[in-house]
């Protein structure tokens, strides 16, 4: 176990080192404390939910592995989230899909109501958390055709439109009850495996369906909509109806959020390059931090170059106030609680690293065309003691420092997860 004295001593040395280049670590830690990461609930149960036990995943989604301890009830999932949140510094949000109902009623997606999620709201109040929400437009008999909001069948479209309308009201319920805005994020897996003849009609139907869903005005203090595009997925390799361009333009013209997911682009694209362009015009972003390996495979987030670039772009361009940061990955080959902790802590670490830089001085050097200083200083920063500042942040938040959290998860696994 890392001693408190050791952490504080290292922090004071790091604080002095950063102060020499004009970085106030106390100010940075105060800023980091205000950031809320939206932690996705579906890592804990492999995206199955509690509405239709035994329902198989469809819509291009697949979860690998069968690690013991998967949550099979809402209470188990909340207990697992409690354990993860106990090991993550800061106060955050939890992101629910609509299939995570907590009710004894037999309810379908087109009949869900706020009361079916009341236990989640009560839990969030007790823990001081916010809640975000997602309509679930996959893994359902009404998606068997491979299309939802863009279907040629009006009955199918109407089913999903009603579902999404109800989700907006549930999201508003979350926001009103918890006193913080809830993001209602819409993603659909509609598309074709092989080349379609008609590419515009499905998008016309999707646009009309979304307009119908958003027709009723809801107080944005409680909820705001986001639309999430995708490049490809299993079964829709040739054409995705809700593409990057479609949703970017839809969000711009409807004054809602655009969701950008790190896994939904070509492997050679760097999504951090897109933030500063879009936010010159758009209302804001919903960011899904994920890790693709050759494709949108939703691996647990690690401190790789892509994550570091994402954090730098948000911090250096002052985009944090207009960006909702969430996670989206699922891995059943490892302890699911550990996956949450690793991914969330890494996201926060990357943001801290980005903040621990003399950004104004670097911009001044750039504006003066002193590219030598810009390059030299950014390279030197890579060996600065950011880890000592992170350890101190964990200590301040009463969460385990360094790898000490692993022992906590091991104990939880042996005492709780293995017994399920």
Distance between the termini: 29 Å
Q: Let me know the largest β-sheet.
A: 8 strands, parallel
**Morphology call:** globular
Instruction: Assign the structural class, choosing from mainly alpha, mainly beta, alpha/beta, alpha+beta, or little secondary structure.
Output: alpha/beta
Q: Summarize the amount of helix as a percent range.
A: 40-55%
Strand content: 5-15%
Helices and strands, in order, run as: HHEHEHEHEEHEEHEHEHEHHHHH
| Number of helical elements | 14
> Class of the largest domain in CATH?
Alpha Beta
Mean pLDDT: 95
Please identify which CATH superfamily of the largest domain we are dealing with: Divalent-metal-dependent TIM barrel enzymes
Radius of gyration: 22 Å
The count of domains is 2
Which blocks of ≥5 consecutive residues have pLDDT under 50? none
CATH architecture of the largest domain: Alpha-Beta Barrel
Pfam families: RhaA
Cofactor: Mn(2+)
Family: Belongs to the rhamnose isomerase family.
Enzyme class: isomerase
Describe the structure.
The chain is of the alpha/beta class and 420 residues long. It has 2 domains: 1-23 and 359-420, no CATH class; 36-355, Divalent-metal-dependent TIM barrel enzymes (TIM Barrel, Alpha-Beta Barrel). It contains 14 helices and 10 strands. The strands form 2 sheets. The protein has an 8-stranded parallel beta sheet with strand order 3-2-1-10-9-8-6-4. Strands 5-7 form a two-stranded antiparallel sheet. Helix 5 packs parallel to helix 6, helix 8 (272-278) runs parallel beside helix 9 and helix 11 packs antiparallel against helix 12 (371-381). The protein is globular. It starts with a helix and ends in a 5-residue tail after the last helix. The mean pLDDT is 95.
């Amino acid at each position: 176990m890392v001693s408190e004295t050791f952490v504080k001593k290292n922090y004071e040395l790091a604080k002095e080192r950063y102060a020499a280049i004009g970085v106030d670590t106390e100010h940075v830690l105060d800023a980091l404390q205000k950031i809320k990461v939206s932690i996705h609930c579906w890592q804990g149960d492999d995206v199955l939910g509690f509405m239709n036990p035994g329902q198989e995943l469809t819509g291009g989604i697949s979860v690998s592995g069968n690690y013991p301890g998967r949550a099979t009830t809402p209470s188990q999932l909340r207990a697992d989230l409690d354990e993860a949140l106990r090991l993550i510094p800061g106060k955050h949000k939890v992101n629910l899909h609509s299939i995570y109902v907590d009710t004894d009623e037999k309810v379908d997606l087109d009949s869900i109501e706020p009361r079916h999620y009341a236990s989640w709201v009560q839990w969030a109040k007790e823990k001081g958390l916010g809640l975000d929400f997602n309509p679930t437009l996959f893994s359902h008999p009404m998606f068997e055709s491979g299309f939802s909001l863009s279907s040629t069948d009006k009955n199918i479209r109407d089913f999903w439109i009603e579902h999404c309308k109800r989700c907006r009201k549930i999201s508003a319920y979350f926001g009103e009850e918890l006193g913080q805005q809830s993001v209602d994020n819409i993603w659909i897996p509609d598309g074709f495996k092989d080349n379609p003849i008609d590419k515009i009609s499905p998008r016309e139907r999707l646009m009309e369906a979304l307009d119908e869903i958003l027709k009723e005005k809801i107080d944005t203090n409680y909820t705001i909509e986001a639309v999430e595009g995708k490049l490809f997925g299993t079964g829709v390799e040739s054409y995705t109806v809700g593409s990057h361009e479609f949703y970017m333009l839809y969000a711009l013209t409807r004054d809602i959020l655009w969701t950008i997911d790190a896994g939904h682009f070509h492997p050679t694209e760097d999504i951090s390059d897109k933030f500063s362009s879009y936010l010159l015009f758009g209302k804001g972003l919903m960011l899904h931090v994920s890790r693709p390996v050759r494709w949108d495979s939703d691996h647990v987030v690690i401190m790789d170059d892509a994550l570091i670039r994402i954090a730098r772009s948000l911090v250096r361009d002052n985009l944090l106030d207009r960006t909702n940061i969430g996670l989206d990955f699922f891995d059943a080959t490892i302890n699911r609680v550990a996956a949450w902790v690793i991914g969330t802590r890494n996201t926060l670490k990357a943001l801290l690293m980005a903040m621990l830089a003399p950004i104004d001085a670097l911009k001044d050097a750039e504006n003066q065309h002193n590219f030598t200083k810009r390059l030299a200083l950014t390279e030197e920063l890579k060996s600065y003691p950011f880890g000592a500042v992170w350890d101190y942040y964990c200590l301040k938040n009463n969460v385990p420092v360094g790898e000490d959290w692993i022992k906590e998860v091991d104990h939880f696994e042996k005492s709780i997860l293995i017994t399920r």
